[in-house]
Structures are given as structure tokens and as C-alpha cells.
Amino acid sequence: AHAHLTGELHLRHGLPHLCDRLMIEQSERILSGLAIVMKALSVRRAIVAIEDNKPQAIAKMRQAVSQMKFPGEVSVSVVPRRYPMGAEKTLIKTILDVEVPEGGLPMDVGALVHNVATLAAIHDAVVLGKPLVERVVSVTGLVKTPKNFLVRFGTPASTLIDLCGGSDECADELIFGGPMMGIAQPSFDAAIIKGTNCVLVKKSDVREEYDCVRCGRCIEACPMGLMPLQFVNLVKHEDYEHLSDYHINNCVECGSCTYGCPANIPLVSYIKVGKAELRKLGVK
Ligand code: SF4
Ligand code: SF4
Asked: Could you tell me the sign of the dihedral formed by the alpha carbons of 172, 178, 184, 189, in that order?
């Protein structure tokens, strides 16, 4: 599966606060995981990418890198804080100045992107023999005291919210993930799973959807240079075949287009439907 890997490894961070703390407090654990991945996949060069608003994490990781031995070259690269820098395609373009082909994977350009938490988990599995049974979760939004927890998988989100002093009375929606790319949960008792980096408690904001006014804001906002309004048009007309003409599979689902749309069109929801229908047609 890794036959195309030519030796680049990129380490990314997701939610700022969480991974910031992990890098400051557990840099050796992260870098131990990095060394294991480099050895296992014969990676010659790894770049630890950290956004420029995290000076403590940058200093800590640079110090730790200089003190450890790796099976290849490892450096720390500072990238601008710009959403969605955590998306692997954006990160690869920023650091290597190469584009992952549409429908392709980072390994198609000889790269592999890992989150710092993943590398820490690899260290735990290989060095300590500890399976992945818990993760750090940030609980934020309409809770009394936002906190980070080390949480066993299967723990209900409501337990964490109680440990934060409870939620505001008006809070009626629970999101797993960040405000732009997170997924709404059916209940406050939804269980924490390995992909749950953040529990966001909020008040639902149901807005009426209007017709597109062709203002072009979604095009300006798209970091991938796409035309999001075309995806909506095609999906509404069930014309899925032509979605690939507009490179829908290059969409990283960052939500920037939806965020600025004055017509309240949930563009990412349409895009997700479009991608799923395209997959059914066998188009990657
Ligand atoms: S931002 Fe919304 S209203 Fe404006 S062109 Fe895009 S989809 Fe249409
Ligand atoms: S979600 Fe919207 S803004 Fe983000 S990459 Fe996809 S089309 Fe572009």
C-alpha cells in the first residue's frame, strides 16, 4: 500500500489548543512515534508543520528534534495560520508546493500526513504495547468551564459536559469536531470515538435557505480555487455526472463557502451529497 511513498512525511495538527498542548507537553512521545513511522516506511525526510501562532510549541518541538535521533532528516517548519491549513492537500501545497491530483492521495505525490495525536498513539502502541483506548478531547462552546480531558472511548459526551459544570440552558446542539467541519450528533449522550477531537456545545441556528444571488463570495472564499455554487446547481438538478468537470473531489469540505454565503445555502451538505452520488457512478 505504501509502494508510492518516496520519503516525505508531514505531521499536522488539528484543533489548535489540543495539539498545541500535546506538542508542548508530550513532544518526546510524538517524536518517538514519528521515528517509528519513518523507520517502518523508509521515510527519508519528515517535516513537522506548526502554525505561526504557536511559538511555545515551535520552540519545544525544535528543541526536542535537536535532542533526538531519527532514521532520516527531521525539521520543524512554521506555516501561516490560515484556515484550512490542517487539510492535508492545503498543507502539502504550502510546504512542498505540489498539488495532490484530483481524487488522489498524498502518497501519489510521495507524501504522508499525520496528526501529532496519531504519532503519539503509534508510540504508545509500539513502545508501550498499549492499544488505542482513549484520546484527548476538548470540550468547549456553551459550557460553564471549557476543559480538555483524556477520555476513554465510549464515554458519553454528557459526562464530559457535566465535568465542565454543565451547559447553558439555551444549548440544544452537540457537534463533534470544529465549528466549520464538525458533525452534529443525535443526542448529548453520543459516545466519544477515536475521531472525536472536540465536543462543541451550541445553540442551533436554523436559517431559511434562499436562492443563490450569484454574488461569488463562495468562489472567493474557496482555498482550493473551486466554484462551489456550481456544485449546488448540479446537485439540485441531479446532474451528478458533470460534478467532476468542476473538480468536486478537490473539495476538502472546509466549510469556508457555506460560512460566507448570504443566501444561507448549506453548500457543504450539497457537496457531500454530490460526492456520494459520484462515487455511486464509479467516479473517483
Ligand atoms: S455565496 Fe451563496 S449566494 Fe453567493 S454565489 Fe455562492 S452560493 Fe450563491
Ligand atoms: S468546502 Fe467549499 S470552500 Fe471548502 S474546499 Fe469545498 S468548495 Fe471550497
From this structure: negative
